[in-house]
Amino acid sequence: METLAIGLLGFFTAGYFALAGADLGLGMLLPLLGRDRADRDRIAAALAPYFLGSEVWLVAAAGVFIGCFPELEGELFTELLPVLVLLLAGWIVRDAGLWWRVHGGRVPDVMICAGSWTVVAAWGWALAEL
């Protein structure tokens, strides 16, 4: 049974990182790729399916991790609390920027870019800590 749980955890985590790589990469490069408002709108439209899909994969991976490995989850989350706070803060800023794009302006684009860089830096920090 543990082998199945580990396999599912690996499958869902790989699915998350495959989709998140696309949307985080686009978010990080938004200022360079989007020269005008129309370009940035097209990039945000291309980013949306990956953004929503990656969250589904992450929720599935978190469910398997928390449900099947509660002791490891407790140790890992306690040890990596500062990293997880940074990760969630970047994620919230990026998501808010994506949802607020309908109002226009440069602030949502800055939020998307800054949030994407923060999430990527936090994942790097988490992997370095492991």
What would you say this structure looks like, in words?
- This protein has 130 residues and is an all-alpha fold.
- It has one domain (2-129).
- Helices cover 88% and strands 0% of the residues.
- It is built from six helices and no strands.
- α1 (2-28) runs antiparallel to α6.
- The longest helix has 32 residues, at 37-68.
- It is elongated, with a radius of gyration of 16 Å.
- The two termini are 25 Å apart.
- The model has no long low-confidence stretch (mean pLDDT 89).
Number of strands: 0
Relative helix content:
over 70%
Helix/strand class: mainly alpha
Largest sheet: none
Q: Please mark out the parts with pLDDT under 50 across 5 or more consecutive residues, or reply none.
A: none
Number of domains: 1
Number of helices: 6
* Beta-strand residue percentage: under 5%
Radius of gyration: 16 Å
Write the element-wise H/E pattern from the N-terminal end onward. HHHHHH
State mean pLDDT (0 to 100 scale): 89
What overall geometry do the principal axes of the alpha carbons give?
A: elongated
- Report, as a whole number of angstroms, the end-to-end distance: 25 Å
Summarize the structure.
With 130 residues, this protein is mostly helical. It is built from six helices and no strands.
